[in-house]
Design a protein that fits this description.
The complex is a heterodimer of chains A (about 290) and B (about 325). Helix content of chain A is about 70%, strand content about 0%. In chain A, strands 1-2 form a two-stranded antiparallel sheet. By secondary structure, chain B is an alpha/beta fold. About 0% of the residues of chain B have low confidence. The chains are: A mainly alpha (about 290), B alpha/beta (about 325). Chains A and B meet through helix 9 and helix 10 of A and helix 2 and helix 3 of B. The complex binds adenosine-5'-triphosphate and magnesium ion (MG).
Chain lengths: ~290, ~325
C-alpha cells in the first residue's frame, strides 16, 4: 500500500503553481477533440429522456439478445432491454457521480489544504497527520468497508471515493499554499491591511485554482473508471440501474455467446475516459509551471 | 518634543537560525525627519524594514509606533495602525498578486481602511496614479505588463494611497536606471514636502541620502555603527571606519580622483561575529580591544553617535 501512497504524494507534488488562460488550452486539436466528446456526453446525459429510443428499464423477454436493428440500434440485452437507451441513461450515472465526487473532494480538500499551509504550526501538523492517514487509505478497502457497513449504493460509493480523494486535493493545496505564502505579494497584502480570511480565499485560492482544475481533469477519468469498476463488482450502483459497470457485469455470462453486450458499454467507458485524459493532458501541456 | 517621535526601536533583534540579520538596533524616527538607513547588501536593512512594519516577527527588542508598544500585539490589534505605516518593497514586480490587476491590488488598502463608494475609490485611485506620474489607464494591467519604473511607481502609489505618516522605502530606486532615479527621488521628495510624510529610506547608494533624508544611520552586520541627525557634508562628517570606506567606494566621476581600492581583507565570519567588533577584519585602524569587546554607540558630537574603539586614530 505504501507504493500507492507514494504515487499519490508524487502526483500531488508534481503540480507547481500553474497559470494558464482558457483560450490557449484549446489550441491543440487533441484537446478540442476531448472537450467535444465530453460535451456530447454531457448533452446526452442532460437530454437522455428525449434521446433514448426506449425505456432503459423496460424488460421484454421475448425480444432478448436481438442483434442491431432500426428500432434497437445496438440490439437488446439478456432481458430484452434496449442497449442504446441503457447506455444513454448510463451517462447520467457516470457524469453525475463523478462530478459529485469531484465537487466534494475539492470543496473539502482545498480549504483544508489552504488552511493547513497558511496557518502553519500546530494546526498544520495536526491537519497534515489527518491528511496522511487518508492518503494511506486504499480506495478499494474504504469502498468495501462502507458498502459493508452502510450498504452498497451509488451514494455510498460517492462517499467512499470522496473520503479517499479529498486528501489529494488537501495535499496539493497545502503544498501550493506554502509556495505562495513565500511570495512577496503575500507580505504586501498584509501591509495593505488584508485579513487572513481575505488573503486565503481571495488571493491564495485564485492562485491555486488552475492547478486544482488541472488535477481534477486528470482525476476525473480515473473516478469514472472506478465508479464503473466498483459497480461491476457490486460495491456501487445496484442493478437494474442502467450503469455502465453494471451492464458489463450483467453481460459476463454472455461473453462467448453475445460479446456485443460487453462491447458497447466497454467502448463507451473507454471513450469517455479517453476524452477526459485528452483534455487533462491538453491543460497540462499548456500550463506554465512556475 | 517626545510626542514627535513616530517610530522607535530598542535593541530590536531578528535571528534567522544562526544568522543575526538585525542585532540590537535602537533607532528613532521623528516626524518630518526622514531617516536614511545605509548598509551593504546583507547588512539587515530590509529585515529591519519588515520588522518595524510587523511583516516579520522580531526575535527580541521593542518597537514603539505612534506611542504604542507594538512588538507583541496581535495582527488584529495592529491592523488599524497599519494605515499609518506603509512599505514600498525592494523588489517591485512580484509584490502584486499576478491574478489581479495592479489597480485591484492598490484598491485593496482602500477597501480595508475606508468606506468610500466605488466611484470615489476610482477617482482617488486615478488621482494617486497621477500623483506618482502614472497613466491611470495602467491600473487595469497586470504587474508583469508594466515596466520596472512603472511598477515601482505603482508600488509607491499603493503605499501612498492610505496617507500614512511613515513610509518605509526599501531601495526605491536601485532597480531603476540612472535617468529615472533622479525623477523618482524628486517625486519622493515632493511627496514628503507636500503631504508631510516621513520616510525610513533604505539604500546602499549614499548619494541619494542627503537629498531625501534629514538623518542617517549606517548599518553593518545587523548593527548600527554610526548615526547622524544631519546630512550635510556626510562624506566629511562620518567617522566610523566602515562609513569612511563606504564613502570611498562611491565611484568618483573623475578617474584621476579615484583612490585605488585596497584589497579586501579577510572578513570576520561565523562565531567570531558575536564577539568583538564585527568590522575588525576589514578595519584599517583596529587594535587589540576590537577583537575582545563589542564597541557601543557613543555620542561623539551632538546628534552624532559612533560605535568604534579607535576613533582617535581614524581622524588623524
Ligand atoms: N527569510 C529569511 N530567512 C533566512 N535568512 C534571511 C531571511 N531574510 C533575510 N535573511 C538573511 O538576513 C540577512 C539580512 O538580509 P536583508 O535582506 O535584511 O539584507 P539587506 O541589507 O536588505 O540586503 P540588500 O541590500 O541586498 O537588500 C542576510 O544574511 C540574509 O541572508
Ligand atoms: Mg534589502
Amino acid at each position: 500500500m505504501d507504493s500507492m501512497r507514494q504515487k499519490r504524494e508524487k502526483k500531488a507534488e508534481s503540480f507547481g503553481v500553474q497559470r494558464f488562460s482558457w483560450h490557449v488550452i484549446f489550441r491543440k486539436k487533441r484537446t478540442i477533440a476531448g472537450a467535444v466528446i465530453i460535451l456530447c456526453f454531457v448533452f446526452t446525459a442532460l437530454f437522455a429522456p428525449v434521446l433514448a429510443p426506449h425505456d432503459p428499464l423496460l424488460v421484454d423477454i421475448v425480444n432478448k439478445l436481438q442483434g442491431p436493428s432500426p428500432a434497437y440500434p445496438f440490439g437488446t440485452d439478456q432481458l430484452g432491454r434496449c442497449i442504446l437507451s441503457r447506455l444513454i441513461w448510463g451517462s447520467r450515472y457516470s457524469l453525475f457521480y463523478s462530478s459529485l465526487v469531484l465537487v466534494i473532494t475539492v470543496a473539502v480538500g482545498v480549504p483544508v489544504g489552504m488552511l493547513s499551509g497558511y496557518m502553519g504550526g500546530k494546526v498544520d501538523s495536526l491537519l497534515m497527520r489527518i491528511i496522511d492517514i487518508f492518503m494511506a487509505l486504499p480506495s478499494f478497502i474504504v469502498a468495501l468497508a462502507i458498502a459493508g457497513t452502510l450498504g452498497a449504493s451509488g451514494r455510498n460509493l460517492v462517499l467512499a471515493m470522496s473520503l479517499v480523494y479529498w486528501a489529494d486535493y488537501a495535499r496539493l493545496s497545502r503544498t501550493l499554499t506554502l509556495q505562495i505564502k513565500e511570495q512577496n505579494y503575500m507580505m504586501a497584502l498584509k501591509a495593505s491591511g488584508c485579513s487572513g480570511v481575505s488573503i486565503v480565499f481571495r488571493h491564495v485560492l485564485k492562485n491555486i485554482a488552475p492547478s486544482v482544475v488541472a488535477l481534477a481533469t486528470m482525476d476525473i477519468g480515473t473516478i469514472i473508471l472506478s465508479i464503473a469498476g466498483f459497480s461491476f463488482i457490486g460495491l456501487g450502483v445496484q442493478a437494474p440501474a442502467p450503469e455502465w459497470g453494471i451492464m458489463l457485469s450483467d453481460s459476463k455470462q454472455f461473453i462467448q455467446t453475445c460479446p456485443r453486450l460487453m462491447f458497447f458499454p466497454g467502448l463507451t467507458i473507454v471513450l469517455i475516459v479517453l476524452a477526459f485524459n485528452l483534455l487533462g493532458e491538453g491543460i497540462q501541456d499548456e500550463n506554465e509551471t512556475e | 518634543m517626545k510626542s514627535d517621535i513616530l517610530l522607535e526601536t530598542k535593541q530590536l533583534k531578528k535571528y534567522y537560525g544562526t544568522v543575526h540579520a538585525v542585532d540590537g538596533v535602537s533607532l528613532s524616527i521623528q516626524k518630518g525627519q526622514s531617516l536614511g538607513l545605509i548598509g551593504e547588501s546583507g547588512s539587515g536593512k530590509s529585515t529591519f524594514g519588515k520588522l518595524v512594519t510587523k511583516l516579520e516577527k522580531p526575535s527580541g527588542g521593542e518597537i514603539r509606533f505612534l506611542g504604542r508598544s507594538v512588538e507583541n500585539i496581535p495582527e488584529r490589534k495592529f491592523r488599524p495602525l497599519r494605515k499609518e505605516i506603509q512599505i514600498v518593497f525592494q523588489s517591485s514586480g512580484d509584490v502584486f498578486d499576478p491574478c489581479y490587476t495592479v489597480g485591484d491590488s492598490i484598491r485593496e488598502g482602500l477597501h480595508n481602511y475606508t468606506d468610500l463608494s466605488p466611484a470615489e475609490i476610482e477617482d482617488y485611485l486615478d488621482e494617486t496614479f497621477e500623483r506618482v506620474g502614472l497613466n491611470p489607464a495602467l491600473k487595469n494591467r497586470a504587474a508583469k505588463q508594466l515596466s520596472g519604473g512603472q511598477c515601482q511607481r505603482a508600488n509607491i502609489a499603493r503605499a501612498l494611497i492610505l496617507h500614512p505618516q511613515l513610509i518605509v522605502c526599501d531601495e526605491p530606486v536601485s532597480s531603476l536606471d540612472y535617468s529615472i532615479r533622479k525623477q523618482m527621488l524628486n517625486l519622493l521628495n515632493k511627496i514628503q514636502e507636500q503631504e508631510g510624510i516621513t520616510y525610513l529610506f533604505i539604500t546602499h547608494d549614499l548619494s541619494n541620502v542627503p537629498y531625501v533624508c534629514k538623518a542617517v544611520a549606517i548599518m553593518y552586520h545587523g548593527r548600527i555603527v554610526e548615526y547622524l541627525d544631519h546630512t550635510d557634508n556626510l562624506g566629511e562628517n562620518v567617522m566610523h571606519p566602515y562609513s569612511r570606506l563606504l564613502f570611498e567606494s562611491v565611484p568618483v566621476p573623475d578617474p584621476r580622483k579615484r583612490t585605488i581600492n585596497r584589497e579586501l581583507p579577510e572578513r570576520v565570519q561565523g562565531e567570531n561575529l558575536q564577539k568583538g567588533c564585527p568590522f575588525r577584519g576589514e578595519c584599517p585602524i583596529q587594535e587589540e580591544i576590537c577583537a575582545e569587546t563589542m564597541p557601543l554607540l557613543s555620542e561623539e558630537a551632538t546628534g552624532h553617535k559612533v560605535a568604534c574603539h579607535c576613533l582617535h586614530k581614524a581622524n588623524m
